[in-house]
Amino acid sequence: MTDSGAGNRRAGEDAAGKVDKRLDALERLFEEVGGTAYFGEPVTTTEHMLQTAVLADRAGQPAETIAAALLHDVGHLLHGLGEDIAERGVDTDHESLGAAYLDDLFGPAVIEPLRLHVAAKRYLCATDPRYAKRLSEASARSLALQGGPMSPAEASAFAALPHARAAVALRRYDEAAKVPGKALPRFADFRPLLRDCALRHAGNAGCAPAAAPL
Ligand SMILES: [Fe+2]
Fold this sequence. Notes:
- The chain is built from twelve helices and no strands.
- The chain is mainly alpha-helical and about 210 residues long.
- The protein is globular, with a radius of gyration of 18 Å.
- It starts with a helix and ends in a 12-residue tail after the last helix.
- Bound molecules: fe (ii) ion (FE2).
- Fe (ii) ion binds near residues 48, 72, 73 and 174.
């Protein structure tokens, strides 16, 4: 093997080792922090995120959108502000927190739908009256803190964003992923998918799917 071939292999092993450590940390967050109730809903945060990922998977979404669905509320596991936070009138900006935490691990096809999933709720409430009616009580309460439904100008600007389509799809799964007592896969079952997405990003192969405006 040439020096550069050996160097490339070492770099690949280093990247894989770093990804595995980050996934270990995420798995610990899911297992150790995500077991509390999900903000006024009848499921835990971990159950809610697993259900969101299962719905994305069943809908035939690309791996990066499934990863975004699985991780979309990871910011809630990081802020440590307690599950009654919306009732106390505080917007945690958990989507920005989660996106910042994962930004070095995944490419935009994972990060952007996650970052936009609250904006997607505001978009859907402005453009789809049936969606707005189906919001849970807790979700309707947090909508007010998040700025309420978008104005027409905000909705058109949102729809033109490259990852708007994936963000809206994620949001619909998010809203449906609050069913108590469902049998679910474990975080570990998604690790190969997450690892592939992260290594594609590390190798700069890009995460091309799902970059579609509405
Ligand atoms: Fe959610």
